[in-house]
Amino acid sequence: MAHYAFLDKNNIVTEVIPGRNEWEEVDGITDWEQAYSEVRGQVCKRTSYNGNIRYNYAGYGYTYDPIDDAFIAPMPVCGHEALLLNEVKRWECATCEAEAKQVRDSA
Q1: CB atoms within 10 A of CB 70
Q2: Distance CA 3, CA 92 (A)
Q3: Do 59 and 74 touch, CB atoms closer than 8 A?
Q4: Hey, which residues does 84 pair with through a beta bridge?
Q5: Which residues are 5's β-sheet partners?
Q6: Which tens digits make up the pLDDT trace of 63-106?
Q7: What phi and psi values does residue 88 have, to the nearest 5 degrees?
């Protein structure tokens, strides 16, 4: 079973639904992103639990980046300014990682 994310005009995910696999053909329909887009009147993009496409599984409030063809989680609030988006489109905070390492090393 495939999953599809609907996007608002700002490329923010508003809903994720289960849907047809891309290889399924029903009544001549084979492009399910396009078919779901037309039914809903919203852009629709396939998403994957295992991250095989578009880097991350889409969730409500995620942003779709059309340049990198990626779903990106909302920026976490950690209280530091050292947040960076890594090469797999996930947020990292060097300060939080250093604090966690310090706690692990002192235990």
Answers
A1: 20
A2: 26
A3: no
A4: 92
A5: 16, 45
A6: 999 999 999 999 988 888 778 999 999 999 888 876 666 767 77
A7: -105, 20
How would residue 19 be classed by pLDDT, with cut points 50, 70 and 90? very high
Identify any residues that bridge with 4 across adjacent strands, giving them in sequence order: 17, 46
- What span, in angstroms and rounded, lies between the C-alpha atoms of 72 and 27? 34
49: tokens are 């639990």
Structure tokens at 5: 């994310």
pLDDT digits (tens, 9 = 90+) for 50-60: 888 999 999 99
**Is residue 4 a contact partner of residue 47, using CB atoms and an 8 Å limit?**
yes
Q: Which residues pair with 44 in a beta bridge?
A: 6
85 pairs with which residues across the strands?
Answer: 91
